[in-house]
Amino acid sequence: MRTHSAGTKRINHPEVGELTEAYETMMIPGSPGVGMTTYLPAPGSASADALTMLQHCVVDVVDSPAAVAGTVALS
Questions:
Q1: Where exactly are the structural domains of the chain?
Q2: Could you read off the pLDDT tens digit of each residue along the chain, which spans 75 residues?
Q3: Cα 40 from chain centroid?
Q4: What CA–CA distance (Å, rounded) separates 64 from 54?
Q5: What are phi and psi of 8, to 5 degrees?
Q6: pLDDT at position 23, please?
């Protein structure tokens, strides 16, 4: 099996469509087999704009009066 520690991934999000993001996996020293992967879109790209839009949607839902009252379920 071949493992890549960096590259580009395409993710099909149900709300905003296709996102293209660079990823990098960093292994945690002293913890064999444990790593952390980051995903970042290119600045100014359509993927960056889509993630910003999603961020605002989540903030709007979390800050809504219904969420404060505990009646909004986030999935």
A1: 6-68
A2: 356 689 999 999 998 999 999 999 998 888 888 989 999 999 999 999 999 988 888 766 666 665 555 554 554
A3: 8
A4: 15
A5: -125, 135
A6: 95
Residue 57 CB neighbour total at 10 angstroms: 12
Q: pTM of the prediction? A: 0.63
Q: Would you put residue 23 in left (φ > 0), alpha (ψ -120 to 50) or beta?
A: beta
Q: Specify the length of the chain in residues.
A: 75
Q: Is 7 helix (H, G, I), strand (E, B) or coil?
A: strand
Q: Which DSSP string do the residues of 17-41 spell out, in sequence order?
A: EEEEEEEEEEEPTTSTT-EEEEEEP
The two three-digit tokens of residue 67, written as one number: 């969420």
How is residue 39 written in tokens?
């995903």
